[in-house]
Amino acid sequence: MKVETLLPLGKVDPGLRAPEQALDIHRVAEDARLVEELGYDGLMVEDTKQDPFVVMTLAAAATTRLKLGTAVAIAFPRSPMVTAMTAWTLARLSRGRFTLGLGTQVKGHIERRFGFQWSAPGPWMREYVQALRAIWTSWQQGTPLDFAGKHYRLNLSVPLFTPEPIEHPAIPVHLAAVNSYLCQVAGEVADGMRPHPVCTAHYIREVMLPAVRKGAHKAGRSLEGFAVSIKPLIATAPDAARLATRIRDVRARVAFYASTPAYRACFEAHGLGALADELQVLSRAQRWEEMPDRISDEVLDLYATVGTWDEIVPRLLARYRGLVTHAEFSIPVHDAMDAARLREMVEALHAE
Amino acid sequence: MFVETMLPLGRADSGLKRADGTVDITSVAVEAARVESLGFDGIAVQDNKDDPYVMSTLALHATSRLRVATSVAIAFPRSPTVTAMTAWSLARLSGGRFVLGLGSQVKGHIERRFGGRWSAPAPWMRDYLRAIRDLWTAWQDGTPVNHASAHYTIKLNVPIFTPAPLACAPIPIHLAAVNPAMCGVAGELADGLRVHPICSPHYLKSVILPAVRKGAARAGRSMEGFEVAVKPLVATAATPAALADKREAMRGRVAFYGSTPAYAAAFEAHDLGDLAQRLNEYSRAQRWAEMAALVSDAVLEEFVTVGLHDTIVDQLRGRYAGLADSMEFSIPVGNEAEAALLATMVEDLRR
């Protein structure tokens, strides 16, 4: 499988807590070169505390081979024309190495963080991607834009604001997804999907991929080349002693996800709807400390891949081989030995 | 005078025609470093065929002293939270060398190019700038954001989406404006004004600056430190023959601007409302070829600074002294001699 990473290397997905290590914008160029040098296929960036496209620009300018992508940028607070232009510029700058990963966010964020009006996210995202494609086609072919949807009507073409064609105009669009409706939309209009870390191998196989196939069938598209890029929950460390801390963290993470109504389907698929309900009650009562204990080792093992550095790669491969095309994985790199170790791990993941 | 240029050097403002020279995104870093070495104070990037923030990122990353301003980015198609975050990232990356220049665009573009809904632009821009400032204050002080205006309600605070404070000075906001209402908003809320090329020194003095001062007074603000950034229409060349060509090209530009209703006020201030009206009628009838001839030499020189390379800097200084704080100016640079000439011109203009 292909191997991707976020920055900084070894960054642990924090759920909604503050991350242990924040991305340092001054180090992006240097770190992107290191990631390329370590043999990674791709460098991904989230849309959290930095503009993801600024980070992508720095990484694109610093590398020559590495694929680059947003994982994911929030779509709706940007007009599709804005996003189309940004992606076009990045595709040109990177000579075709950029993948546009988009996500819907949830109602509360769109309304109360971005100040926009909410609407059913699946149909909105479908139209958003269709609008992007219509814009890109008009730019590449030099034809007037005429897109009429429910959310967007785009029909003004002015030469001064019309970019020239580019060498790699088929910019891949990936969609972040948890629930089946968005998976179906991904199958209909996107080139790949990025399951949330809470999505288990079982959930991807039994719920997400059937929905993707349904969408593709509906749209009469082939799924040849469709990417499934995961960011698995992982607890790993050089040795068993240090692994214990990681396990404690990931257990808390699973508990947090279980308490979040948006991820309930991922727990129901494992017959854990009652556990999700229980954790939601605890979370509403702000009884955070009690939550991790409700996640048994057995449940933890469903959601997280756990192992020392010697064990983790075979375990990831056993779980995801044949199911996904890309996986995000890294360990912190403090010295040349860490770098050599990570290079080996990336190579081992990449080999299968 | 603080001197800026667009990229590539010598690029003439294009109105709504295809640009004469567009910058190749893969050469922005090299071009920006060259602009810095020529002694310029800043680079101004537009929002037309490339993402202006991607260009700003490349220019800031490739330089250490130069200021980079969007001149201007279109505001409304991006949520204020998006724009606030982008500017914050660029300020952090550059240690405070980024200027957020914003413009409203017109109804047709917002609706039919960006797919948004239009609303009166000056009140909307006021809400937009206030939302950005409220977000920045919250991020800098570590306090919850709580913005409520007619256009935006922003009051969700989540640690993972809250950037850390900046170590640099606050990010300046400049506003593009032609008409008095938007100039007033700039005076109320912005740190500078990005004046459209069609605004003559006379229009600047008699309409724009009074409107800005009125806005500032309304908000009880001082104009101390407020930056007026101009991008004058210039026809300049090394020889009289070459200058004649530039001058005729500029005549077409003035005719085009005159035909555009949004700029009517800039012509009316010169009692040229009738000319603007006639140019508008010609453009509607697609009589483009005949339009330039309607612009007399006298009218041309109200709007355009015309002069040879050895006099143009003095002419520009004479026209804009006391009116503008920063100016966009450059000539095309094809060889070392032209680079040396431009460096001298920039040095003269900065004095």
Overview of the molecule:
The complex is a heterodimer of chains A (352) and B (351). Chain A is α/β, with parallel strands linked by helices and 352 residues long. Chain A has one domain: Alpha-Beta Barrel (TIM Barrel). In chain A, 46% of the residues lie in helices and 14% in strands. Chain A has helices at residues 28-37, 52-62, 80-94, 107-112, 121-141, 180-189, 201-219, 240-258, 264-268, 273-284, 297-303, 309-320, 336-350, and strands at residues 2-5, 42-45, 67-70, 73-74, 98-103, 147-148, 153-154, 173-177, 192-195, 227-230, 233-237, 304-308, 326-328. Chain A is globular. The model of chain A is unreliable at 14-19 (pLDDT under 50). In chain B, helix 6 (180-189) links the parallel strand 8 and strand 9 (192-195). The model of chain B is unreliable at 13-19 (pLDDT under 50). Chain B contains 14 helices and 13 strands. Chain B has helices at 28-37, 52-61, 80-94, 107-112, 121-141, 180-189, 201-218, 240-258, 264-268, 273-284, 288-291, 297-303, 312-320, 336-350, and strands at 2-5, 42-45, 67-70, 73-74, 98-103, 147-148, 153-154, 173-177, 192-195, 227-230, 233-237, 304-308, 326-328. Classes of the chains: A alpha/beta (352), B alpha/beta (351). Chains A and B meet through helix 2, helix 3, helix 4 and strand 7 of A and helix 2, helix 3, helix 4 and strand 7 of B.
Give the helix/strand layout.
The complex is a heterodimer of chains A (352) and B (351).
Chain A: E1 2-5, H1 28-37, E2 42-45, H2 52-62, E3 67-70, E4 73-74, H3 80-94, E5 98-103, H4 107-112, H5 121-141, E6 147-148, E7 153-154, E8 173-177, H6 180-189, E9 192-195, H7 201-219, E10 227-230, E11 233-237, H8 240-258, H9 264-268, H10 273-284, H11 297-303, E12 304-308, H12 309-320, E13 326-328, H13 336-350
Parallel strand pairs in A: 1-2, 1-13, 2-3, 3-5, 4-5, 5-8, 8-9, 9-10, 10-13, 11-12
Antiparallel strand pairs in A: 6-7
Helix pairs in contact in A: 1-2, 2-3, 3-5, 5-6, 6-7
Chain B: E1 2-5, H1 28-37, E2 42-45, H2 52-61, E3 67-70, E4 73-74, H3 80-94, E5 98-103, H4 107-112, H5 121-141, E6 147-148, E7 153-154, E8 173-177, H6 180-189, E9 192-195, H7 201-218, E10 227-230, E11 233-237, H8 240-258, H9 264-268, H10 273-284, H11 288-291, H12 297-303, E12 304-308, H13 312-320, E13 326-328, H14 336-350
